[in-house]
């Protein structure tokens, strides 16, 4: 495994606010009270270190506890509210709003009935996949 050591990107205050789902003023207050360290980017604008921002985002992210308390090897569990159900005789599309994320699942219409899913009900999306695609804004890719 490689050890990646390089300069972390600097994220402008407005972008940091967007990533954290807060206002620019909140990020500025966090730089003033020491929650985040402010620095100038090459253009002289106020910015924060990308790694520091990522750490704060991880530490501040809280989804509700999984009500099922089921043991599972799947680590990607997203608790949310059912916001949409589109069903026919055989298949259904169920949409959950899990924090800031929209998760969509395709399942049998029978499963929707058996699970008692209805608009506004609490459910957990469990994602177990062997393939996860990660993209970057720079458009670079390695296959």
UniProtKB/TrEMBL annotation:
Residues 71-136 form the Mop domain. Pfam families: HTH_17 (PF12728), TOBE (PF03459). InterPro entries: HTH_17, Mo/tungstate-bd_C_term_dom, Mop_domain, SinI_DNA-bd, Transp-assoc_OB_typ1. Coiled coil: none annotated. Keywords: Molybdenum. SUPFAM superfamilies: MOP-like. This is Molybdopterin-binding protein. It comes from Arthrobacter bambusae.
């Amino acid at each position: 495994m490689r050890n990646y050591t390089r300069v972390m990107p600097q994220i402008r205050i407005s972008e940091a606010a967007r990533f954290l789902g807060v206002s620019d003023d909140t990020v500025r207050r966090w730089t003033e009270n020491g929650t985040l360290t402010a620095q100038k980017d090459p253009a002289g604008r106020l910015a924060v270190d990308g790694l520091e921002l990522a750490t704060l985002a991880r530490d501040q992210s809280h989804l509700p506890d999984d009500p099922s308390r089921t043991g599972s090897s799947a680590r990607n569990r997203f608790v949310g509210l059912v916001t949409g159900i589109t069903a026919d005789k055989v298949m259904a599309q169920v949409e959950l709003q899990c924090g800031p994320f929209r998760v969509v699942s395709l399942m049998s219409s029978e499963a929707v009935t058996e699970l008692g899913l209805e608009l506004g009900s609490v459910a957990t999306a469990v994602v177990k996949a062997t393939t996860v695609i990660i993209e970057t804004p720079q458009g670079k890719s390695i296959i």
